[in-house]
TrEMBL record:
Enzyme Commission number(s) of this protein: 3.2.1.96
Pfam families in the cross-refs: Glyco_hydro_85
The protein's name in its UniProt record: Cytosolic endo-beta-N-acetylglucosaminidase
Species, as recorded: Pan troglodytes
Entry keyword annotation includes Hydrolase: yes
Origin organism lineage: Eukaryota, Metazoa, Chordata, Craniata, Vertebrata
Record-stated family: Belongs to the glycosyl hydrolase 85 family.
Broad class of enzyme this protein falls into: hydrolase
Known function: Endoglycosidase that releases N-glycans from glycoproteins by cleaving the beta-1,4-glycosidic bond in the N,N'-diacetylchitobiose core. Involved in the processing of free oligosaccharides in the cytosol.
Region of interest (Disordered), ranges: 334-364
């Protein structure tokens, strides 16, 4: 091309350089965005390595709860019966994982926040971080929210050996990271659920791990809670007791509370009154709403379980904590359901679950 006022001699060519600016975005991290919609989602951690490697990232901002924990009267710290709801919905992280809301027409939702004190979000991933929609909604109603730290099967046993069988630096590193995650995402604590046997070395370090985790959490998260699920006993065996007793009390003494397995009978409740003593309000008695196994209540009799806490016991009683929640939808109010039973004319037809809706605003 010839510039103005300049001739090009025979055989000459003028070269003009142009800079082409292009932008190729990095692939969206699978953990933070749904692969089908590219919408931001809440997430979990699947291994000890992921937990120890976790650091806050820019994308994590989507998952940080904005609602502070509202004041509740009487406060959770008072010695009164409490109710804990353990969300266990088809593995978790369904439509409630969508931070900006879901288009599902009949979502899993919980409406009766005034009836509960603690909400646990449960899944079978190693570190379950509650979806932010649940935390915001629960906090708005003065309900504290716990994530779940779970180990299971042979893989869970190896994971526990990795951080519990060594010296204190190993289990303190895990506890520190759990506290950092709690503080960053602004929920309130953890349910510790060890569903595998432990070696003598590992089970020996479990109470110090719980004490350290509880102490650090209380320092960093006002009102924080660490609860232990009734699974492993002090010998290291995986042996559900369905009660607080001398075989698992060491774990109860090392944290804020104890969540029993759900195959208890009336005599278990009576014995627990003596075991718990002044801390009876820190024992959460599990109720499986699906009534699997030889359990008290469940399904259509879930509302009757509360009467079982005062059969022959004197004085204050341990609190009821449902293991799963299931309300009944009827044709006249199809949206007022949680994990639910399908029905026709009020008669149960078949059990089925509905998907959670994190963006739903719940009435007080």
């Amino acid at each position: 091309r010839r510039r103005p006022g300049r001739s090009i001699r025979d055989g000459e060519e003028e070269t003009v350089f142009r800079e082409v600016v292009s932008f190729s975005p990095d692939p969206l991290p699978v953990r933070y965005y749904d692969k089908d919609t590219t919408k931001p989602i809440s997430f979990y951690l699947s291994s000890l390595e992921e937990l120890l490697a976790w650091k806050p990232r820019l994308e994590d901002g989507f998952n940080v709860a904005l609602e502070p924990l509202a004041c509740r009267q009487p406060p959770l710290s008072s010695q009164r019966p409490r109710t804990l709801l353990c969300h266990d919905m088809m593995g978790g992280y369904l439509d409630d994982r969508f931070i900006q809301g879901s288009v599902v027409q009949t979502p899993y939702a919980f409406y009766h926040w005034q009836c509960i004190d603690v909400f646990v979000y449960f899944s079978h991933h190693t570190v379950t971080i509650p979806p932010v929609g649940w935390t915001n909604t629960a906090h708005r109603h003065g309900v504290c929210v716990l994530g779940t730290f779970i180990t299971e099967w042979n893989e869970g046993g190896r994971l526990c050996e990795a951080f519990l069988a060594g010296d204190e630096r190993s289990y303190q590193a895990v506890a520190d990271r759990l506290v950092q995650i709690t503080q960053f995402f602004r929920f309130d604590g953890w349910l510790i659920n060890i569903e595998n046997s432990l070696s003598l070395a590992a089970v020996g370090n479990m109470p110090p791990f719980l004490r350290y985790l509880t102490t650090q959490l209380h320092r960093q998260v006002p009102g924080g809670l660490v609860l232990w699920y009734d699974s492993v006993v002090q010998s290291g065996q995986l042996k559900w007791q369905d009660e607080l007793n001398q075989h698992n009390r060491v774990f109860f003494d090392s944290c804020d509370g104890f969540f029993t397995n759900y195959n208890w009978r009336e005599e278990h409740l009576e014995r627990m009154l003596g075991q718990a003593g002044e801390r009876r309000a820190d024992v959460y008695v599990g109720v499986d709403v699906f009534a699997r196994g030889n359990v008290v209540g469940g399904r259509f009799d879930t509302d009757k379980v509360g009467g079982g806490f005062r059969p022959r016991a004197s004085g204050p009683v341990p609190p009821l904590g449902p293991h799963f929640l299931m309300d009944l939808p009827f044709p006249s109010a199809p949206q007022r359901n949680d994990s639910s039973c399908s029905s026709q004319s009020g008669d149960p037809v078949a059990l089925r679950n509905r998907c959670p809706a994190p963006a739903k605003l719940c009435p007080p």
